[in-house]
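Hi, here's the filled form for the chain we discussed.

Project: internal
Contact: R.S.
Residues: 294
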Amino acid sequence: MSGQTLTDRIAAAQYSLTGSEVARAVCKATTHEVMAPKKKHLEYLIQATQESNVNIPQMADTLFERAGNASWIVVFKALATTHHLMVHGNERFIQYLASRNTLFNLSNFLDKTGSHGYDMSTFIRRYSRYLNEKAFAYRQMAFDFVRVKKGAEGVMRTMSTDKLLKGMPTLQSQIDALLEYDVHPKDLVNGVINAAFLLLFKDLIKLYACYNDGIINLLEKFFQMKKGQCKDALEIYKRFLTRMTRVSEFLKVAEQVGIDKNDIPELTQAPESLLESLETHLNTLEGKKGKYLL
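And the returned structure, exactly as it came back:
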């Protein structure tokens, strides 16, 4: 119990009295201790999402309640716990979050209790935006990019042209929200922000794999697309090229803070000639509409 405040213990005890073990576990995962949420509490909550008799909206509401705390520690841990459950819990947890009109409203969050509070508040605001975007992407696509099958037989490689042109901007927005976290090694100074960073890093690896799959599918279909589709696809591809640099920068931070190099993918830059040939093809379609428009 060391490091927990009296408030933490009272909050946990209140839920014990009402018989809500799930809410008690949420409180235990989001104490005022400056450390990552404890594994045993996260595992309990993951298991709870699998149980048919557990009320998922109630679990989410307890997390939202904790995210309304004044302390940056409690709020950050509530976000990290939510993120953990979105990734590892039963899919009905993220489905429920995606069905809500609003999730975290922390764009003005500021813990003024000390310089550390000020610094961490910045990352809380950015982190909450990412989790909101992650839930929104699920609502748009009816699946989580992080959890779907990757590779040649994966979701993004086998997607139809229309769905791909709708899905790629959604994926790009989620990646953008993650990259806007914009953390540097000097900021990773405690167990709470480090836990969040690790979750974001793991999401980025899987999101980028989906992104890559989507681009491969897009390029394979490009020369059979109609002119309007080609225009959209070319914009998506150009954005992909600019994001590669930012993804590389995020991965460099991961390497600098000691994440195993074997867990960090190598990004290979696409040749300039590829972009030129795509642009040439689109110009041809625009110049000779009657002959080339499918």
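Let me know if anything looks off before we file it.
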